[in-house]
UniProtKB/TrEMBL annotation:
Pfam families: GAF (PF01590), HATPase_c (PF02518), HisKA (PF00512), PAS_3 (PF08447), PAS_9 (PF13426), Response_reg (PF00072)
EC number(s) on file: 2.7.13.3
Annotated ranges, domain PAS: 53-102, 176-247
Signal peptide: none
Domain PAC: from-to ranges: 103-157, 250-302
CDD domains xref list: HATPase_CckA-like (cd16919), HisKA (cd00082), PAS (cd00130), REC_hyHK_blue-like (cd18161)
Keywords in alphabetical order: Coiled coil, Kinase, Phosphoprotein, Transferase
This protein's name: histidine kinase
């Protein structure tokens, strides 16, 4: 503690009172500086460290406006009241140490206003000594930098005007120069004045500090000009000339290069001061360091440019070079590049680098040891920052070599994989330069984005190669699988054909045995003259033939090739007409129930085949209930959406369902899976052909519908036939005529019979001849057309559909009608060939008849066709 005499103590007390009076406005002789402090838009406070807890003794209006506090709420309090719980403890400690050590400080801290809202405060703190050099006050200015870019422009303009005004009055207030310098330093600004006649410079310590000049060394006008970046000197000179000659405000942003080689951005603002006659005297102004602002904006723009480039580039080498170019131009260095490192050989291989104008490329292989010992730092994963190769201990001995490659300043950022050094991102500058933290953060961001992009491109390229290889393998595997699948299908087809052939052979051999045996017995009885005993053998042969015809119909139904005669059908009436037959068939131990919905839609179906299918289902249900049970026949309207239709292998739409359910033994899944196979049956030998369900399946599919089985062992079975709705009315069926004798021909009626089977042709001709028709026979389509192309009268063509020689029955009929448009035609066929319905329907005057047929039925159909029209 310094000892003072009473006189000195009294002097210090009066001095403190005078300063206090000035600050609170009691001194009528308040200086222009104090007035400026009160009036400035920069928030300012003064604290008194001589009082307990260093309280605020002055706060200007701008401070109150910024924080929302009245002056009365502020005075006497320590500045800590602005700090909230979210203030950085490190920053708070930094402020505490600066106050304790009476040191100037510039720091950003998160503060709170009176209303609780947060704002970032850029605090400029400066100690103010009294006349004896003892600490008297702390002078602090506050800047809201939450929206730094907008507020910085306004702040710079206000400070420029304030500084210009203060400079213009400097010759009147020399005693205030030191206080002015301290205020400017606290605001992060430097004041200067240039005499336009002598080109002499007057500046403050703060200005020299901004320019990187030693504070205790004077700076001349020429010194200042030498610090201006060579590329900006002409622009600065032009601005000065415009201010002197035209009186324009001095306003320019330019770069400087400090004596240490650091490039900084400055914003200089000033005004022209004239004498009484209007002649220019000096330009007075202030300069603010805007390096951080400019760098931030340039780096932000560079990252946007990099993102665009990374999106468009495909080659990893192009990506690396583009990133280096963006880094070099943004940071204004001499060189930027990327190289692969051989850790063992301690070399770097550079394929391509970016170089500023006048700088040579380093492409090739370089040995790290030729340029210093910093390879050891790189191996340990540390980023190497060398501000000046001449003074850095790692490069002092190799400084000349580095300067020889324009790398006096070096930044080497190692890139590692699995903990090992593999590559290097490097920046070089031909002059000494610092590597600020914000630049390093920017470089790391670029490095990480670039490495991610290059690795992604390499991975995509490798993936594409892998995909091509996999695609080839998939094609090869698919081809092999298709061949195997084709072989499997062929095997399954042959197995099914074998099963089908075996079943058909078994049933037909039984039927043929009955037919041939009966014919043999008839022949023997006729030879013995025992004609009366032939009737029962004739009846047996006819019965076997009818069963054979029924078997073929079932086979055709399964294959969906039977000849159907569909018509609008009311299923509910059809079931009602069969109820008595179903009840008799079920027997007394089975109760029959019918359940039908209201308003059942009509369907377009062959009613005889539907009756046959329904009866088959009822018989199967009876056989599944050997001890009796309940059989239910139900019909309902069904509107199937896409999901429900897909489950039933149908197209979405409206359907009518006819279901038969029982309370019998049920069916396991493996039986359901094979239930529709021909000749597959679970019944004992002799109790079923195995064609019932397959016939129903084929009939439903041929009618545009589907059949499904729902069953579980012990829970009974339900089989449902789904048939499409018919959008039309059901015609009332006329009473079927009673059996009458086969009608005979009228005089002169001629029938042409074409069939490649001699027996069928002979039988048809014989039947028709007995009925009085003139019959012409032909064995194929060609010979039949030869008859039709003559003048011979033909009233009816009876032709088989399946004819040899390349011309089927439908083609013969179409050709015949060209010469004879009104010719009537009866097709006879073993199955409904597509050729018959090649136009989707039978033309007028055409009918179809299915083999085998009764002779009487042939005669009736011929008479019906000839009588039409």
């Amino acid at each position: 503690m310094t000892n003072h005499t009473d006189a000195e103590t009294e002097l210090r007390t009066r001095d403190a009172e005078r300063i206090s009076d000035e600050l609170v406005g009691l001194d009528s002789g308040t200086s222009p500086f104090v007035a400026a402090v009160r009036a400035t838009r920069m928030a300012m406070v003064i604290t008194n460290p001589r009082q307990d807890d260093n309280p605020i003794v002055f706060a200007n209006d701008s401070f109150c406006a910024l924080t929302g506090y009245d002056r009365a709420e502020v005075l006497g309090r320590n500045c800590r009241f602005l700090q909230g719980p979210d203030a950085d403890p490190t920053t708070v400690e930094e402020i505490r140490r600066a106050v304790h050590g009476a040191r100037p400080l510039r720091v950003d801290i998160l503060n709170r206003k009176k209303d609780g809202s947060r704002f970032w405060n850029r605090l400029f703190l400066a100690p103010v000594p009294d006349a004896d050099g003892e600490l008297a006050y702390f002078f602090a200015s506050l800047v809201d930098v939450t929206e730094e870019q907008e507020r910085l422009a306004a702040l710079a303009q206000d400070n420029a005007v304030l500084a210009a005004q203060l400079t213009a009055k400097a010759h009147l207030e020399r005693e205030r120069d030191r206080e002015l310098a301290l205020a400017m330093q606290a605001g992060g600004m430097g004041a200067w004045s240039v005499d336009v006649r002598t080109r002499s410079l007057t500046d403050t310590e703060g200005y020299r500090l901004l320019m990187g000049w030693a504070i205790d060394e004077p700076m001349s006008y020429e010194d200042r000009q030498s610090l201006i970046h060579p590329d900006d000197r002409e622009a600065v000179k032009a601005q000065s000339q415009a201010t002197i000659s035209e009186g324009a405000d001095y306003s320019i942003n330019h770069r400087i290069v400090t004596p240490d080689g650091e490039t900084r951005w400055m914003a200089a603002r000033g005004v022209l001061i004239e004498d009484a006659t209007g002649a220019p005297l000096r330009i007075a102004g202030v300069t603010t360091d805007i390096t951080q602002q400019v760098r931030s904006e340039r780096m932000r723009s560079a990252l946007i440019e990099l993102s665009d480039a990374l999106r468009d580039l495909e080659d990893p080498d192009d990506i690396s070079f583009t990133a280096a170019e963006i880094l070099g131009k943004t940071l204004e260095v001499s060189r930027a590049g990327y190289g692969l490192v051989d850790r063992t050989a301690e070399t770097i291989t550079i394929a391509r680098d970016w170089n500023a104008p006048g700088i040579n490329s380093l492409a090739g292989v370089l040995n790290f040891r030729n340029f210093g010992s910093y390879i050891e730092d790189l191996k340990s994963g540390q980023t190497v920052l060398i501000t000046d190769a001449r003074t850095d201990p790692r490069t002092a001995d190799a400084g000349a070599a580095l300067e020889g490659i324009s790398a006096r300043a070096v930044m080497n950022m190692p890139l590692t994989e699995q903990g090992g050094l593999v590559a290097l991102l490097y920046l070089n500058h031909r002059n000494a330069r610092a590597w600020p933290d914000d630049e390093m953060a920017f470089i790391r961001d670029v490095a990480e984005r670039t490495r991610a992009a290059t690795e992604r491109r390499r991975a995509e390229r490798d993936l594409a190669l892998l995909a091509a290889s996999l695609e080839q393998k998939v094609e090869e595997r698919t081809s092999a699988l298709m061949e195997a699948e084709s072989a499997l299908r062929q095997s399954q087809k042959m197995e099914a054909v074998g099963q089908l052939t075996g079943g058909i052979a078994h049933d037909f051999n039984n039927l043929l045995t009955g037919i041939t045996g009966s014919l043999d017995m008839i022949g023997k009885r006729l030879a013995e003259g025992r004609i009366s005993e032939t009737d029962r053998f004739i009846t047996a042969a006819q019965g076997a033939a009818r069963r054979a015809a029924a078997l073929t119909h079932r086979l055709l139904a399964f294959s969906r090739r039977q000849t159907l005669e569909p018509k609008p059908t009311d299923i509910r009436k059809l079931v009602a007409g069969m109820e008595e037959l179903i009840v008799r068939t079920m027997g007394p131990s089975v109760r029959v129930e019918s359940v039908h919905g209201t308003g059942i839609w009509p369907t377009f179906v062959d009613p005889g085949q539907l009756e046959n299918a329904l009866l088959n289902l009822c018989i199967n249900a009876r056989d599944a209930m050997p001890d009796g049970g309940v059989l239910t026949v139900e019909s309902a309207n069904r509107w199937l959406d896409r999901r429900a239709a897909a489950e039933r292998d149908l197209e979405p739409g409206q359907y009518v369902s006819l279901c038969v359910s029982d309370t019998g033994v049920g069916m396991p899944a493996e039986v359901i899976a094979r239930a529709f196979e021909p000749f597959y049956t679970t019944k004992p030998i002799g109790q079923g052909t195995g064609l019932g369900l397959s016939m129903i399946y084929g009939f439903a599919k041929q009618s545009g519908g589907q059949v499904r089985i729902y069953s579980e062992p012990g829970e009974g079975t339900m089989v449902c036939i789904y048939l499409p709705r018919h959008l039309g009315e059901v015609e009332n069926a006329a009473d079927e005529p009673a059996h009458v004798e086969t009608p005979r021909a009228e005089d002169g009626q001629t029938v042409l019979v074409i069939d490649d089977e001699p027996t069928v042709r002979m039988l048809a001709a014989e039947v028709l001849a007995e009925l009085g028709y003139t019959v012409i026979e032909a064995e194929d389509g060609k010979s039949g057309l030869a008859v039709l192309n003559t003048n011979r009268s033909v009233d009816l063509l009876v032709t088989d559909v399946g004819l040899p020689g390349g011309m089927n029955g439908r083609q013969v009929a179409d050709a015949a009608r060209i010469a004879r448009p009104g010719l009537k035609i009866l097709f006879i066929t073993g199955y409904a060939e597509n050729a018959v319905l090649s136009h989707g329907h039978l033309d007028p005057g055409m009918q179809i008849m299915t083999k085998p047929f009764a002779t009487d039925e042939l005669g009736r159909r011929v008479k019906i066709i000839l009588d039409e029209g």
